């Protein structure tokens, strides 16, 4: 598909719904792994100052535009992206899909009581979702505990809410050891779900 380079980061040229239907759903249904980065201007700037982080986000299957700053930048270079694709909204679409199709999710990140509460609230709103597991994000990111939990519960969707750059670094380092799953860094989203 179509990609647009902004400050050396290749953004998918797509609307949120198109992206969800054309890329995410087929990947889940075919049990293909997918690494999604939702990049805002901060992430783009940070990547261009930190080669290791940039290398990690360039391993993503898809980088989507999160934030009006990226949309503005795309217009300035006359390759306008259609709209923002915020991580929180993508997560809502994925939860709705998981609920309708009895797919499983894993939540990794935020404080212990926050991720617990987020799981409870998600279960209330989406009763048919299978919660494969959850774990707070205050762990040594080189430790394999959470990786093993995900490996054994084999979820369809893995939401990683550690904030950047931690979440993308964790995904790029670990997803090759996992069998399936849609992997996406969702920043502070669990704080919203847990509120
Ligand atoms: N977080 C985490 N582990 C950490 C640091 C942060 O799980 O070592 C969580 C934090 O609790 C919050 C989310 O990551 O739910 C986003 O954190 P922050 O606001 O610092 O990141 P940003 O939103 O700036 O990316």
Question: What does this molecule look like?
Answer:
The chain is of the alpha/beta class and 195 residues long. The protein has one domain (3-193): Rossmann fold (3-Layer(aba) Sandwich). The chain has 9 helices and 8 strands. The strands form 2 sheets. A 6-stranded parallel sheet has the order 4-3-8-7-5-6, with helices on both faces. Strands 1-2 form a two-stranded antiparallel sheet. α6 (112-125) links the parallel β5 (104-109) and β6. α1 (16-29) packs across α5 (87-100) and α2 (41-49) packs across α3. The longest helix is centred in the first third of the chain and has 14 residues, at 16-29. The chain binds uridine-5'-diphosphate. Uridine-5'-diphosphate binds next to α9.
The separation of the N and C termini measures 37 Å
Main CATH class: Alpha Beta
Q: Output the CATH topology.
A: Rossmann fold
How many domains? The number is 1
Percent of residues in helices:
40-55%
Bound molecules: uridine-5'-diphosphate
Principal-axes shape call: globular
Distinct helical segment count: 9
Q: Kindly state the mean pLDDT as a whole number? A: 97
Number of strand elements: 8
Largest sheet: 6 strands, parallel
């Amino acid at each position: 598909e179509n990609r647009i380079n902004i400050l050396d980061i290749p953004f998918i040229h797509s609307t949120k719904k198109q992206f969800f239907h054309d890329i995410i759903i087929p990947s889940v249904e075919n049990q293909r792994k997918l690494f999604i980065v939702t990049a805002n201007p901060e992430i783009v700037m940070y990547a261009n100052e930190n080669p290791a982080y940039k290398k990690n986000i360039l391993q993503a299957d898809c980088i989507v535009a999160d934030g009006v700053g990226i949309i503005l930048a795309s217009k300035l270079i006359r390759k306008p992206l259609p709209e923002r694709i915020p991580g929180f909204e993508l997560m809502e679409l994925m939860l709705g899909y998981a609920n309708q199709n009895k797919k499983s999710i894993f939540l990794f990140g935020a404080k212990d009581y926050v991720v617990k509460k987020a799981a409870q609230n998600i279960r209330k709103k989406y009763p048919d979702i299978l919660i494969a597991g959850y774990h707070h994000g205050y762990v040594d990111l080189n430790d394999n505990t959470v990786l093993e939990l995900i490996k054994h519960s084999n979820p369809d969707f893995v939401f990683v809410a550690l904030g950047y750059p931690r979440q993308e670094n964790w995904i790029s380092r670990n997803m090759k050891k996992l069998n399936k799953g849609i992997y996406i860094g969702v920043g502070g989203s669990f704080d919203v779900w847990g509120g």
